[in-house]
Every structure is written in C-alpha cells, then in structure tokens.
Amino acid sequence: MTTQHDTAPSGAASPPGTPNQPPAGSGLAGKSTGFAATDVLINQFDGGPDTVERALNTGDELQPHTELGLKDDEYDRIRQILGRRPTASELAMYSIMWSEHCSYKSSKVHLRQFGEKAPKNTRMLAGIGENAGVVQISDELAVTFKVESHNHPSFVEPYQGAATGIGGIVRDILAMGARPIAVMDPLRFGAADHPDTARVLPGVVAGIGGYGNCLGLPNIGGEIVFDPCYQGNPLINALSIGVLPVERLQKKEAAGVGNVVVLLGARTGRDGIGGVSVLASATFDEGAEQRRPSVQVGDPFMEKLLIESCLELYDAGLVVGIQDLGGAGLTCALTETAAAAGTGMRVYLERVPLREPSMSPTEILASESQERMLLIVAPHQLDEVLKVAEKWGVWATNIGEVTPSETDGQPGRLVISWNDHIVVDVPPGSLADDGPVYARPIREPADLILLQADRAETLPRPSTPDELRATVLRMIASPNLCDKSWVTEQYDRYVLGNTVLAQPEDAGVLRIDERTGLGVALAVDGNGRYARLDPYEGARLALAEAYRNVAVTGAEPIAVTDCLNFGSPEDPAVMWQFAEAVRGLADGCQQLGIPVTGGNVSFYNQTGAAAIHPTPVVGVLGVFDDVARRVPMGFPPPPTTEGDLLFLLGDTACELSGSEWAWVTHGHLGGRPPKVDLAHEQALGRLMARASEREHVVAAHDLSDGGLAQVLVESCLRHNVGARIMLPEHVAGNTPFVWLFSESAGRAVVAVRRGRDKAFLALAAEHNISCVQIGVTAQDPVLDIHNEFTIGLDTLRDAFTATMRNLFGGPAEGVTRPAAAVAAASAPVIAASAPVLAAPAPALSAPAPVLAAPAVVEPARSATEPVQPVVEPVRPVVEPVQSVGEPVQSVGEPVQSVTLEISETGAKPHETASGPADEVAGLPTRSEIDPASGGPIDPGTAKSDDDEPEPKG
Predict the structure, then answer these.
(1) What mean pLDDT is predicted for residues 715-744?
(2) Residue 680 annotated in active site
(3) Which residues, listed in sequence order, are joined to residue 499 by a DSSP beta bridge?
(4) pTM (two decimals)
C-alpha cells in the first residue's frame, strides 16, 4: 500500500518495493500488449515519451488514428481543438473518450427523449449522466441502481469478463455514496447445444458467482436466454443496487482549486488496455483475434476493502468528489471530474502505483485495471484519508491537484506529466462532453414486412389431450423455460440476511430498514424476438413485463434503468431498430409515470454482418412500505383439502407470434408481438398492491414466456403443491391450447384464500381488471387440466430440472472453472454480514493482515490465452486468502503480516511478528459474525450460515 502525499511536481517518492517507470532516457520501451491497435501507443521518442513540446515541432508526423477507431474527420477535429497534432497519450485519450462506448455519439440524439418525455417525479435525486440513478424511498433513505453491459469481454474471456462486469457496476453504485446490497444478471447466450455456449456460459456464471459471492452481495434475480442470434455475441448485463442516507449522496465534480487528486484502490497494470475504444466499440469479425486487448482482471477482495474504505470516508465527510475507474480508466475519471466542475488538473503519472514497471504513460492512462477510484480531497484532510486507506489496506496515492479555470473564463486544462515530461495538455471538456454526435441514417429492415406477415397463429397446433400433454413437457424442458437452478445455486442469494424474495421469483425483494420493514423489489426483463418483430412494441413489452413482475409482488414501481443491446450503429437497419426501441421505452415510461434514471447502450453486438436481435433489457425498481406483505410466486400448501382458489387476471387472446411455443416447436419467428396496454398494466399493479395490503392474495405469478402452462408448472413445483384447473370455455375462439400457451400481456395468476374471494373479486372489478376463476390448489401432487390431461409433479419436475444438467455436465458444483476462480470462490467474505447502513463493526474495522497487503494481481497470461480448466467443487469457506491469485494458507499456519507507517515521502512497509493467521488477524471466523451487528456472535445465539430468512418480515 502507498499513502503518498508529497505534492512536489517532480521526484515524488514511491514506497519501497513499488514498481515504477524507468527514468527518462533509459531506453526501455513499453512491453507489447499483443494487441495491434494499442501497440502503436507504446512508444518512446529519442529516449523519452511523445511530449507536447515534441508534438508542436513535428506537426506533419503520421499517427495511427484509424487503428484506434478514430475517423479522419474526428482526427482533424482533435488537431483543430489542440492547435497541433496530439501526443501519443492524447491520441489514446481521445480515441477512448470519443469511442461509441464512452461518448454515446450515435445514440445521444435518440436518448434525449428520456429527458424530454420524463414524467414529473419528486423521488429522483440523480439521473441520466451520473454514475447511477438515485431515487428517494423515505425521508431518510435513498436507493441507487443501474444496469450495464460487459458483453465483448465476456466472450473473449468468460470468467474475468463477467467478474469485472460485476465489479464495475458495483463501483458505479459505490461512487454515488451507497453501500451496494445486491446484484442481478440478465444473461443471453447462443444456442444452448452449441459447443461455444458450453465454453462461455460456465465461465460467465462462475465469474459472476465468484466475484459477487466474495463481495458478500446476494444475487437476487436475472434472466438466462438462449438464441442462435447471440452466438459469438453473448449479452452479459449486470445490475447492482445500493442504499444510502439521503445526505450522503456523492458528486463527481473536481471542485475546489488546490484540492488533492487521490488514486485509491488497486495498482495499475496492462489489463484492459483498449477495451472501450476497440473491443466494446467494434464488431467481431474473422480478423478480430489480433485486435482484442487483454480483458480486465478482477480482485473481489480488493473491491471489498475499497467499498469499506470509501464508505468510511463518506461518513467522515472527507470526500469532495469521487469517480470510479472502469472503462477508460484514468482517462475517463480525470476528464469527467474536471469537466463536471469546469476546473483543470495537474497530474503526475510517475506517482501512479504500477504492477509492471515498464508501463508507458499512454498505457497508464488507457489501462482499465479494476478496483480503483479517483477521489478529490481537501489538502487539510489528506492525512485523514491516507489513514483510512492504511486501515483498510488499500493503496492511496496523491497524484495531483485541482487547478483553476483560465483567466479568460474558459474551463481549466488537464495537464499530465511523466517524469518531468508534459505528455498531455488538453481542455478536459473536449474529451468528456464535446465528442462527435452523429445523426446516423436509419432505415426499416428490408425483411421486416415479410417477417411480420409470417404469423405464428397459422402454424399447426396440438389439439388432442395427448398432444397438449406432450407439448407441456416439451416446453418446460426447453432451454429458455427450464429450471435454472444449475446456475442460480452457484450464487449466494441470502448473504447479508435482507433478501426476502430471490430467484426464481418474479422479482427480487430486499428489506432496507429492519425497523419499519421498508424494502424494494427489482426485476429485469427483455425479449429479443419481440423486438426483432417490432422494436417499438418490443421495448414497451419489456418495460411492461418488468413493471408487472415488480407489481405482482405487491410493490409500487417507481423507476427504470435500461441496457440497450444492439448491432452496429453504422447499419441503418440497426439504427432504425434502436431509434424505435428508445422511442417505445420513452413513451412507455411517460405513460406509466416512472422515469428512466440511467443505463447503458451497447452497440456493435454482431459478428460480421449478422447482428443480434435488438435486445432492450429493462430494469424496474419498486418500493414496499413493509416487505412482510410481499407476495411470492409459489402456491402455498393449502390449509384445507378444498385448496386455495386460483384466478386468472387479464384478457387472453390468440397471440403466438414471437412466442416460446412457436420457436421451440417450429423454430419460427414471425408475425407481430402481443399487444401491450400500459394503462391496463398500471391498473393491474394498483390491484396487486391493494390486494397485498389487505392480505387477499397468498401467491401471484405474472404470465409471459410460455404462457399459462409455464406459470402453473412453476407455481406448483415451487412448494410441491398440486393444482386442478378448469380452463374457461371457448371464449372468443380460445381453445385449450390458446389458454395454455398464448403470451398475451397484462396477465397474472393469483391464489386467494377461501373466504376472501368475494372481496378480491370486488377489488378486481373496482380496478376494471377481468378476473376468472380457473381452479384450485390441491394436496395431491398433480397438475390436472380438466378434460385434457393430468401430469404428476414428479414427472413435471424431472422434465423441468434435467435440461441444464444434461447440457452443461451435471450439478452446479461440477462446473469447469479457472484455477484462480476456484481459489477466489472458496475465500471468505470480509464483513459480508455488516448492516446495510451501519458503519463497519469494530471487530472488522482493522483489516486482517492476511488481507491487508495490497492485492497485486499479476496475470500470468494474457486474458485472451486459453484458460486451463480445473474441475473442482466449491468447498465451504474454511480458509482465508491473502489475495486473488496468491496461495491459500490454512488457518493456523504462520503468516507474515504487513503494517505501514507513514513518513513524509510515503508509506514504508515493515514486518511484524508471525503467528497463526487467525491469531494475527484477531478476527472472528465467518460463522462467528453476527449478521445484524457485524460483530462477534454470542455462542448461545449462533445460527447456521444456511439459515434462510424468516417467512415473513
């Protein structure tokens, strides 16, 4: 760890043992990354870096701007802004910040609708343009949430790509001043039986589980979808949610001339260089292998320490501004914080702690090494900040200071030096805010008219009881509808003790305030097939389903986040799909009265000319005044032999186009998606909230993919409760098949206790929601469709649960995982049981020496090299780990601990006495930590780690 605070412009001391750059003139050139587009940036000129002075004198020198993704006119504009050619470091910075991923240059003109059509909302404290949206849920508390993509890195290296996707979205939440409390993962892969899916999916799931579990964050929901359109372009979206006191909301502005710029967290390495400018902002094609940079390497234990240190700094009022370092690394953090405040910065790159001593200034600025934050700190509070960093065992380095605006009133300049060489001198706003904006041409896809004319309603359908029975079994065993426990059992859903509902429920539900029961519900949804048939309606359907998933739990939906996954914006047909989807989502949110608080656009999801289906993924947040009244999806055991009453809410029409049945049975995609009535969705949501408050409903499950048949199977199997169903007569021509497999929107199945049915029916009539009784729950373990077929629950369960095991090789613990992943997943969670809002417990305040040393993750291979698989079950937590990638030492073995003392030039590590790891640490074991207080547990009240939350409250 370095806690350096020397502000001298040159010759800044580095802590002993910290690898830094060679002195100017040493002749050491940067190490090649093996990635053509970034190798051009690793250069030395006359024994030193490409400086601003040299750029002024070599204006005609050719530069590889096209290899970095910059167009000729964009490069010309950069020269115009600077009045000279850019240095190598400046060229890298502009290529990064003007990339599609960072600048939103193709989507800005359409995304403005979210602001223009935003409904009036008094809850929103921070919205689009911030690290994450923040909404107030009580007088004292607010929630921040956001969904983002990590698609291309997860295809290149599934484990690290997915793991760092979780780490990045968690830091977005942390940067708003919140404690992260949960994650979700909407995932999409190619054909389930494709060999490459067998490579990508296990690694992605292991990465999400390994990183999230080690952070101690419950994974409360998500999606897993298979479709050939995602072959070669899996969609790995990640959502995180956090909670904060309203007054702790943080800002990113680098305000206050003279304030210190502090780099907090892990050291900087070569991983991820070029990630956003080339990997995330270009399509995959046959020549893509040589253009793929190394994927970021994650260390969840450093991230956990970073979280706790930041929260302590927030509570102590020591942070003026803060920005996480993810995509675009230091380049993004420095330019965005300075541009937001209109100030300048003076930064000294030689002070940045490095993992590799030969890194050039260009590489330092472009690196996307994980687990880092940029802090703006008042000079008189710097020592306090450094002490907090030392306490938590994270690197903290003063790398510069905030400078004033120009004398003519123009914003300040960002000036960056490396060993006395000025390598960057730019207006920060030109990178962060003034990038190119394109109104790209749009054109309806040429095949859309024919596609919509090919309706699934004309396809042959099963009609006999035997055919319907066989169709039910086939559908529930299909990859998109089958049980996903093979995946979800690899995630910890109940860590922290505040999970009320989690997968496979319609929405995840979290308790926020244990005193009042205040809580939130979260759901994410999307349907690429619907959006392919009609992107406007497809986006509205995704919004409606996420809204409905939250509503059926009894929560009030209040806000939206989105991740918009599309093909290349350079294709007019893709841009038409994008424009229509954004319009549909903006119109839908306006009608529902809930704002879009933020999100992400992911373009270039295609291989060659083959784009994915347009896939807008929508997350909806709802709020409970008391989570004790939440409604689960599973039918509860009936209190009497007569069973509970089952009602179908909403209208059913013959809507099969884009359905799971059409795809599974006929491999068909065509027609128009189901109609969506958002006023009806609102009314259904109000009905469910009222029914929940009055305790009329004991179970509720929304209808979507797979229709009524899928809902009945899932609700019965949840608690092994049977159901006897009598389908309505042939209303409006609906046959038993249509009742079972139509995917009409705006519907739900609810279970109502006998004696409350009249009150519930009156409530439904009051909200103008059609409600028809379709059956009762039963003690017999069967699903009986009257006059059609009967299937035992054991038979249903066998069909429902076998698919993922058959596809991916047995139970979850047999998954193939990288060796480092096995070590990471078996490591303890630090302070995982700390209260959501409470300060870290005293017993966990001082980091254990085995974790205090900086987690220096030196990748032994490029992230694009083949992973050596290790098949090993994940063991219970019994061993502490020093850091990711370091050897695991058993409790009781001697370990050298490291402490630090601060001097004027920085921190000096020195050794202390060795002893058993647990004694040196002085920490209780995980089983001895009380989840309520975060401190040691009373042996007389100890509970098993496997205890699930209480059924209510």
Answers:
(1) 91
(2) no
(3) 510
(4) 0.82
